[in-house]
Amino acid sequence: MILKKVIFVLFIAFCSANLFAQKDSTNIKGIKIKGKLKTTQGVYNPLSPSKAAFYSAIFPGMGQIYNKKYWKAPIVWGALAIPVYYYQINNSEYKRYRRAYKLRKNGLQDEFTLDDGSTTVSVETLETAQKQLKENRDMSLLSGIIIYVLQIVEASVNAHLLQFNTDDNLSFKPTLIMDPIKIETPTVGLNIKYSF
Q: What keywords would UniProt list here (predicted)?
């Protein structure tokens, strides 16, 4: 008996859901439109984010230019130039200390050995400098790769977000309202209004 009641209630619920369902406004038969139909909203282009990401991968900053955010391209170029600059400096210094270390280990004179045979830099200092410069060089390379990937992601996300409706009618305006009934103990509430 309970099973019959449950089935009956579910049947009524499904029937009422279909009764109050929204009608499809695009399914209109017999109406012909002459001329071109103008819309105020932009057309969604699903390939736009992938194009922006592709352009940024080929040449950093080009995805930002594709998105018409021209001011972001010099920021990307500057952000990528910094790790490249420090990579080159650390790599040349690493090679310099590595060359001196190899020469000293083979008993030859290096750039840190004076004419009288004394050295200005010890072997331990050469080893420590090599380790530190190699670590700095690798960190510069890693930060350059991270910035490169982030600028690709930024171009793709920006291309996605450019296709959203940002009309002023679509807004979220929180306001604080005082309760006029409770004068002696004022309470503050939050009123959220949204409009489409």
A: Signal
